Amino acid sequence: MGYEILKQFTNSHVENGDSVLDIGCGQKLFKPEHCGKYVTVDSFEKCKPKYLINLEIENLPFEENSFDVVFMLDFIEHLDKDRGNEILKQAKKITKKKLILFTPMWWDDNHENIEKGFHEGNIHNLHKSLWSGEEEELQGFIVYVIPPFENYFLGVYDK
């Protein structure tokens, strides 16, 4: 139920026909039905992303202003802080309109989620950083609080 609310939120920021880049797409839970193009990036082959990229060591392969909207949903915490800031800078350049970021503001290494279910064996699914919303790279985001995600950073960066 909770992720349906988040999907409604993200969908409300995507206009008909927009191109969307979903970084760390996972199971593609947030694909907007009304977007024109939906491109996915993930490091876990089982997710079947369009671009299989390990963002812990590789950069995003897209030109500036390539997509109308960029999603980073439940993703940035899987990178260490320096690498997360670097990918965040790249995502800001790639988007034409908006970057939507969602990350927990409480610590959990997420170890149990690589031992079972869809992400079994996905070592990239471990949490490596904690984001408070105070980071310099998160300045300029409009912050939203929606139940049941009061303990998450949910921000929209308008370009």
Structure description:
The radius of gyration is 14 Å and the shape is globular. It has two helices and seven strands; from the N terminus they run αββββαβββ. Strand 4 (67-73), helix 2 (81-94) and strand 5 form a beta-alpha-beta unit. It starts with a helix and ends with a strand. With 159 residues, the protein is of the alpha/beta class. The chain is 16% helix and 25% strand. The longest helix is centred in the middle third of the chain and has 14 residues, at 81-94. A seven-stranded mixed sheet has the order 3-2-1-4-5-7-6. The protein has helices at residues 2-12, 81-94; strands at residues 19-23, 37-42, 51-52, 67-73, 95-104, 142-144, 152-158. The model has no long low-confidence stretch (mean pLDDT 93).
Entry keywords:
7-stranded mixed beta sheet, globular, 159 residues
Shape: globular
Distance between the termini: 30 Å
- Give the quaternary arrangement of the chains: single chain
- Helix/strand structural class: alpha/beta
Could you give the count of β-strands?
7
User: Low-confidence parts lasting 5 or more residues at pLDDT below 50?
Assistant: none
What's the short story on this structure?
This protein is α/β, with parallel strands linked by helices. The protein has two helices and seven strands; from the N terminus they run H-E-E-E-E-H-E-E-E.
